[in-house]
C-alpha cells in the first residue's frame, strides 16, 4: 500500500519487520510447546527470544543467496544462538511459520477494522436521529419519487454497517487460525500436541484439516467481507456525490479552510473524497477475484498464492481501514442544506404528491384506474408545461367534486410522509427523537 493511504495503527501490522517479529513469535511458541512436552530443556524458548536478532538487511542478504525467505530468516535470527538453536523450527515446515503468523496479522487487522465499523455505526446513528424530521424528496431511477426522511438514509447505511460487522467478525474468526502440522499436514515429524499448545499461546484456532498450508477459502471469505465493506462505503459516497451536484446541492463534503477544488476554476468545490472512495471500492472488488483464484492450489500446496497475498492482503486491509476512517469523517462532518431540500420540491412542480391525490380519490369512490388516469394526465401536463400540479388539481372539476379545497390542500403536506418511520427507528433502538432523548 502506498503511504498516501496507509494509516496507523494498521500500517504497523504489515511492515516487513513486523512480519519477521510474528515469525519469531510463532517459533518461540512452538519451542515453548516442546518444553511443555519435555522435548526441550526448560527455559529454551526464553533463551531463544533473548538471543534472537531480527536484522532485515541481513535477512535480505542471505535470501539473495538461498532464494528462500524463511531459510534466510532462520539463518539470520539464530546466528547468535548457542545449543538452543537446534530446537528452533524443530519438526516444522515454512508454512507452519508463515501461515500461522499470517493468522496473527489478519486477526489483529480484523479487530481494528471492526473497531472502525463500530465507530462508523455510532456516527450514523447520531445522524439518523439528528435528521429524522428533515424532509427530503426521495428519488428512484434518479427521478423525484415521494418525500421521505433524510434520516432514513443514515438508517439504511447503519443497517448495512451492522451486517458488515457480522460478516467481518465471522470472517476474522475464520482467518484467526494457524497450523503446526508439518510438510504435508500429517504431523509426521511433529506432535499434534505441539500445535495445540503453541496455537493456544498465540490465541489462534487450529486449522481443522490443513495440508502444507491453511486452506485459502477462509482468506477469500475475509477479502470478500472487506470488499462488501467497500461496497457500503461506495454506496454512501455515491449518494453524497449526487447530492453535491450543482443542480441538487442538498449535501456536500466538508470543505476545509484553505482547500482548493481546481487549479483552473477557483469556484470549484468537488466531491473528491467520495470519488476517491468509489475508486478504492473497485480495487477491493478486484482483490476478491485474486483471493478466489488462490483457493485452488496443486495437491498439498504450491506457491502461486504467495505472490498474490503479499500484495492483496496488506493492501485490502489498509485500504479498508482508510476508507472507514475517511467515510466516518465524511458522515460526521457532512454539510446538509435542509432549505435546499425544500426548494428542490419545486423542481418537479409538486408532482411528488401525486399518489396521495390518487389514493384520496379512490377513497372517495373513484375507481383506481380512473383515478390513476386522471392524476397522470394532470401530472404530465404539469411536467410538460411547467405548471404547478397542486394548482391543476384544484382547478379540475372531477377532483373538486370529491375533495373540498381544504382536504385537497392537506394532501400536499410533506411531513405526512414521515408519520410511520417510528417503528423503523425502533428497530435500531432509536425510537425517540433527539429532543426526547435530551
Whole-Å distance between the termini? 44 Å
Q: By helix and strand content, what is the structural category? A: mainly alpha
The percent range for helix content is 55-70%
The order of strands across the largest sheet is 1-2
- CATH architecture classification of the largest domain: Up-down Bundle
Order of helices and strands: HHHHHHEEHEHEHEHHEHHHHHHHH
Number of distinct beta strands:
6
What does this structure look like?
The chain has 438 residues and is mainly α. The protein folds into 2 domains: 92-341, Fumarase/aspartase (Central domain) (Fumarase C, Chain A, domain 2, Up-down Bundle), CATH 1.20.200; 351-411, Fumarase/aspartase (C-terminal domain) (Ribonucleotide Reductase Protein R1, domain 1, Orthogonal Bundle). Helices cover 61% and strands 5% of the residues. It contains 19 helices and 6 strands. It has helices spanning 10-13, 16-36, 44-51, 56-66, 69-77, 94-130, 150-175, 192-202, 217-243, 272-293, 304-332, 338-344, 354-363, 368-385, 389-395, 397-400, 405-410, 422-426, 434-437, and strands spanning 135-140, 143-149, 177-178, 205-206, 251-252, 335-336. It has a two-stranded antiparallel ribbon with strand order 1-2. It has a two-stranded parallel ribbon with strand order 3-4. Strand 1 (135-140) and strand 2 form a beta hairpin. Helix 6 packs parallel to helix 11 (304-332) and helix 10 (272-293) runs antiparallel to helix 11. The longest helix is centred in the N-terminal third of the chain and has 37 residues, at 94-130.
Amino acid at each position: 500500500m502506498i503511504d498516501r493511504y496507509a494509516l496507523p495503527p494498521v500500517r504497523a501490522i504489515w511492515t516487513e519487520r513486523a512480519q519477521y517479529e510474528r515469525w519469531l513469535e510463532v517459533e518461540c511458541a512452538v519451542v515453548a510447546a516442546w518444553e511443555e512436552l519435555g522435548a526441550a530443556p526448560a527455559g529454551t524458548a526464553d533463551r531463544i527470544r533473548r538471543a534472537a536478532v531480527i536484522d532485515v538487511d541481513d535477512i535480505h542478504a542471505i535470501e539473495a543467496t538461498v532464494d528462500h525467505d524463511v531459510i534466510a530468516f532462520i539463518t539470520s535470527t539464530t546466528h547468535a544462538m548457542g545449543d538452543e538453536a537446534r530446537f528452533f523450527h524443530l519438526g516444522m515446515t515454512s508454512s507452519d511459520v508463515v501461515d500461522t503468523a499470517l493468522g496473527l496479522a489478519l486477526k489483529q487487522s480484523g479487530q481494528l477494522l471492526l473497531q472502525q465499523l463500530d465507530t462508523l455505526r455510532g456516527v450514523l446513528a447520531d445522524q439518523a436521529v439528528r435528521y429524522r424530521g428533515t424532509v427530503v424528496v426521495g428519488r428512484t431511477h434518479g427521478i423525484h419519487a415521494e418525500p421521505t426522511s433524510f434520516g432514513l438514509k443514515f438508517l439504511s447505511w447503519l443497517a448495512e454497517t451492522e451486517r458488515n460487522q457480522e460478516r467481518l467478525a465471522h470472517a476474522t474468526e475464520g482467518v484467526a487460525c494457524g497450523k503446526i502440522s508439518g510438510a504435508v499436514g500429517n504431523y509426521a515429524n511433529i506432535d499434534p500436541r505441539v500445535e495445540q499448545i503453541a496455537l493456544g499461546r498465540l490465541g489462534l484456532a487450529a486449522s481443522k484439516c490443513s495440508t502444507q498450508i491453511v486452506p485459502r477459502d477462509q482468506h477469500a471469505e475475509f477479502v470478500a467481507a472487506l470488499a462488501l465493506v467497500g461496497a457500503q462505503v461506495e454506496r454512501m459516497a455515491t449518494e453524497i456525490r449526487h447530492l453535491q451536484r450543482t443542480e441538487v446541492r442538498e449535501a456536500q463534503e466538508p470543505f476545509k479552510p484553505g482547500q482548493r477544488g481546481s487549479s483552473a476554476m477557483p469556484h470549484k468545490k468537488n466531491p473528491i473524497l467520495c470519488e476517491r472512495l468509489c475508486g478504492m471500492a473497485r480495487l477491493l472488488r478486484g482483490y476478491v477475484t485474486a483471493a478466489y483464484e488462490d483457493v485452488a492450489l496443486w495437491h498439498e500446496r504450491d506457491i502461486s498464492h504467495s505472490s498474490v497475498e503479499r500484495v492483496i492482503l496488506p493492501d485490502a486491509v489498509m485500504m479498508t481501514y482508510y476508507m472507514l476512517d475517511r467515510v466516518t469523517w465524511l458522515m460526521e462532518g457532512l454539510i446538509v442544506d435542509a432549505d435546499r431540500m425544500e426548494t428542490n420540491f419545486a423542481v418537479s412542480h409538486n408532482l411528488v404528491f401525486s399518489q396521495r391525490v390518487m389514493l384520496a380519490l379512490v377513497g372517495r369512490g373513484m375507481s383506481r384506474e380512473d383515478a390513476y388516469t386522471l392524476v397522470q394526465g394532470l401530472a404530465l401536463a404539469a411536467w410538460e408545461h411547467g405548471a404547478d400540479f397542486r394548482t391543476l388539481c384544484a382547478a379540475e372539476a372531477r377532483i373538486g367534486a370529491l375533495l373540498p379545497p381544504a382536504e385537497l390542500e392537506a394532501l400536499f403536506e410533506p411531513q405526512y410522509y414521515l408519520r410511520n418511520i417510528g417503528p423503523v427507528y425502533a428497530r435500531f433502538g432509536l425510537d425517540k427523537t433527539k429532543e426526547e432523548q435530551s
